[in-house]
């Protein structure tokens, strides 16, 4: 079961975190391209008007989410 999914779509690229569970455990991690849903998954995406986000790399090569100017 998909318990939770959250994240950001910046520059048209999703960066999503998911929590899924089976009868015994819960598992968390990034939702990657190629993941499949067995039955049904309902997801709502909210478009924040006036907010323009992008991911850039810092001088230490770390991805940061920043607002476009």
Detail the topology: elements first, then pairings.
Blueprint (H helix, E strand, L loop, with lengths): L1 E9 L2 E9 L4 E6 L21 E5 L5 E5 L2
Antiparallel strand pairs: 1-2, 2-3, 4-5
Describe this structure in words.
It is a single chain. The strands form 2 sheets. A 3-stranded antiparallel beta sheet has the order 1-2-3, with no helix packed on it. It is mainly beta. The protein is 0% helix and 49% strand. It has strands spanning 2-10, 13-21, 26-31, 53-57, 63-67. The N and C termini lie far apart (39 Å). The protein is built from no helices and 5 strands.
Number of helices: 0
- Percent strand equals over 45%
Order of adjacent strands in the largest pleated sheet: 1-2-3
Outline type: globular
Give the helix proportion (percent range). under 10%
Mean pLDDT: 90
**Cα distance spanning the termini:** 39 Å
> Main sheet?
3 strands, antiparallel
Give me the count of strands: 5
Low-confidence stretches: none
Structural class: mainly beta
One letter per element, helices H and strands E, the order comes to EEEEE
Give me the Rg, rounded: 15 Å
